[in-house]
Design goal:
Layout: H1 2-6, H2 10-21, H3 30-39, H4 44-77, H5 80-103, H6 108-117, H7 122-147, H8 152-187
Helix pairs in contact: 2-4, 3-4, 3-7, 3-8, 4-6, 4-7, 5-6, 5-7, 5-8, 7-8
């Protein structure tokens, strides 16, 4: 991995991997991002930002694929009443599903394609993807930027635990903020 991370093609391959992983590619970009950023800690934040942009861009291709080919397959596998119910739930909670899948080790590509199959609007896909993927990759980049190569083995060893912990915290903050603003809006302005 060290030889690969030092290659002049490493960042380009990382970006392609992040893009493809949001659609069909099975290899998550995290280990490659960590290896490359650990060699170039001063560039860790912009490398993480590139990975975020590539991953979110790939999500839109996954969404498009779901729109194009997913529905006929779904129609052959499940009765329409089940599809309609799932679509209603995904319309209501889809941004949360995208957010959770974008940050945690849950396969993100499944949800990007499902977002297209179940007609989740692109704005919800964009918001969930930017928040989830941005938090995930920028957290890794920030830690390497601050702590340098010393944190590389810690990240590689504990990435799943970190992802679940921070993902849960991000989701809790978003839920609490949403509840706060809904309550405040319903209660009216305070003097």
């Amino acid at each position: 991995m060290l030889e690969f991370a030092e290659s002049p093609w490493a960042i380009g391959i990382l970006v392609l991997n992040a893009f493809g992983e949001s659609i069909v590619w099975p290899v998550p970009p995290d280990p490659i991002l960590i290896a490359i950023a650990a060699i170039r800690p001063k560039d860790a934040l912009w490398i993480a930002a590139l990975v975020t942009v590539a991953s979110v861009s790939g999500a839109f291709v996954g969404h498009w694929l779901g729109l194009q080919v997913g529905r006929p397959i779904l129609n052959k596998l499940f009765p329409q009443r089940h599809i309609s119910k799932a679509e209603g739930l995904f319309q209501k909670y889809g941004v949360w599903a995208i957010l959770v899948a974008a940050f945690t080790p849950i396969p993100y590509k499944v949800f990007t394609i499902l977002a297209g199959v179940l007609h989740l609007d692109r704005k919800s896909l964009l918001v969930g993807s930017i928040v989830g993927r941005g938090a995930r990759f920028m957290l890794q980049g920030s830690l390497i930027f601050v702590f340098g190569k010393e944190i590389e083995s810690f990240l590689e060893t504990n990435l799943e635990v970190i992802s679940w912990t921070v993902g849960t915290a991000v989701i809790a903050v978003v839920i609490l903020a949403t509840l706060y603003y809904r309550f405040r809006f319903r209660a009216g302005p305070t003097s």
